[in-house]
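B., you asked whether I could sanity-check this one before it goes into the benchmark set. Here's the sequence:
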Amino acid sequence: MNSIKYILVALVFLTACKKEEAEPLPEGGYSKGILVLNEGLFQLNNSSLSWIDLETEDVRQNLFLNTNNRPLGDTGNDMIVYGNKIYITVTGSSTVEILDKSSLKSIKQIPFNYNGQAQEPRNITTHQGKVFVSSFDGYVSAIDTSSLQITKRIKVGRNPEGVCISNNSLFVANSGGLDNGNPDTTVFEIDLSSLVVVDTFVVGANPGSICADDYNNVYVVKRGDYGANPSEVVRINTVDKSVVNLGIPATSLTMIDHQLYISHYDYNTSSSAVAIYNCSDQTMQNPSFINNQDISTLYGVSPYQSNQLICFDAMNFTNSGYLRFYNSSGQLTNSINVGLNPNSIIHYE
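And here's what the prediction gave me:
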């Protein structure tokens, strides 16, 4: 039986990484579509990019491989656009890939391998000419967007993951997720002028996803232990420095206008839900904006156009995933099949 299992895994790997005949680059470059980062499966080197043409709904798979003649790598964890470049953290391969936004050709691949140690980059954000990348080695790295060089490494907590900007500070969620049974519990604040840690907030075990509103609040998911210690949203007020557990079940967060969209996937019951929290008056606007009947495995959410939402459906982590499109009333309007474990998008207008 073991030999059969290994053969099946190998077939999945070869299928996911197979180079297809490259389609011609759209005239003028990529536009009016959605670029999707598909995480793939750990240690199978099968992260990929998908492209959705919004006019025809045609989907191009394995875009990075077909454009650059090599795989993207192992476990693409996060993706962001800044100016005319796209930055992708590839955790298992310990690299940050930088692409030209229009052609998706690789401009540079930055190895995250400090002093021979794989740093395993996780999440990414941008601010005033710099890209900030958290890494499991306990540091945040600053990349200059002109030179594409790492200009600073900032020591933070254990196994940092989620990062966000609020006012002139970078907030870093330190999960400690690689230390089984002994997670970190902190969010660090880094002053962006000095690039020095200036404050520490204790938010609860295993903090991960994090984002900021326009009212001096930062929200973080403390994931607990997925059992007796539940995964919930914690609010940090950056002015009075208070920390409050809002008691709202959550696995990931995204901000749309002044509303916090809170996605929650219950790993025990396999149920999914998306709630909306109003940040301006700190009230729950809709605890069940989306129910789970249309989603198999909720893997996160992303804003799409005005008052619309995309939910990432990982389909039990073994089948190619879907983007589920919802309107402002929480109704499913479209589903598009993409790659394995989609986790982030960039919308080309």
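One thing to flag: The radius of gyration is 19 Å. Otherwise nothing jumped out at me.
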